[in-house]
Design a protein that fits this description.
By secondary structure, this protein is mostly helical. The protein contains 13 helices and no strands. The two termini are 24 Å apart. The N terminus is likely disordered.
Length: 253
């Protein structure tokens, strides 16, 4: 499993297209941020930038974080990872856990800075301490894959279980994989299936694919080609491995 895609946001805002007015001095930082998010979700990048910058100048931490996201993803401006880092650090210093996680991602991928797994892990752990599910999952990945730390499946399981408790579907799937592969514990296909179902219920197409694999290969369950196909089809909406599995079985998506 890979670490989450770069700069994934975690804050849910309305995505309707608003009638966005230019910022004025009487607007509160939070109202500017709300209008900025509406513009951002609607794809009005220049308007969003103006509103975020104004909100950030008034101390809004979420606006600082989103300015980092826009800098790092090149929305409404040229991509600039150093500018992204600057905004993320401002937001992180004010306690924004997603900004901390994104700093970790910059170090993990070596974007605007030298690749540094140790520094990435430090920021993921700092973000995790604030309850950030994505960062907690990433801590598990680093322990599992030995990135900047020795491989430690028990610590990986601990982090994945914590992230799963926070609702992270990738972490639920990762717990299932540890059980399926017997990494740091005995192989337990029944427990793996249980965790894959939790992840699938939370929307993980990777977990749906893994359920299909267990049914196809008869791991912990009676081999059932039809059930495997059912799960591969569910996963195939956005999972290439599921598409390949269907093709190998001679079945259309």
């Amino acid at each position: 499993m890979a670490i989450f895609v770069f700069l994934s946001g975690t804050i849910a805002f309305a995505q309707t297209t608003p009638a966005v007015a230019p910022p004025d001095g009487s607007a509160s930082a939070q109202s500017l941020m709300t209008r900025g998010m509406q513009a951002y979700e609607a794809g009005h990048n220049n308007v969003a930038l103006e509103l975020f910058r104004h909100a950030a100048s008034l101390g809004n931490v979420d606006a600082m974080m989103y300015l980092g996201v826009m800098s790092g993803s090149g929305r409404g401006m040229d991509r600039d990872y150093q500018s992204a880092m600057k905004w993320f650090k401002q937001a992180a210093e004010a306690g924004n856990s997603q900004a901390m996680c994104n700093i970790g991602l910059l170090y993990y991928q070596g974007l605007g800075v030298l690749k540094d797994y140790t520094e990435a892990m430090r920021w993921f752990m700092r973000s995790s301490a604030f309850g950030n599910a994505e960062a907690t999952f990433n801590v598990g990945v680093f322990h599992r894959d030995g990135l900047g730390v020795p491989v430690n499946y028990l610590e990986a399981m601990k982090a994945f279980r914590h992230a799963a408790d926070l609702g992270d579907s990738s972490a639920m799937n990762a717990v299932g994989l540890l059980y399926q592969q017997g990494l740091g514990l005995n192989v337990d296909y029944t427990e793996a299936m249980s965790w894959y179902h939790k992840a699938a219920d939370a929307g993980s197409t990777t977990a749906m694919y893994n359920i299909g694999v267990l049914f196809e290969q008869g791991l912990g369950v009676t081999a059932d080609r039809e059930q495997a196909i059912v799960w591969y089809r569910r996963a195939a909406v956005s999972n290439d491995r599921a598409k390949e599995a269907l093709k190998s079985l001679g079945v259309k998506e």
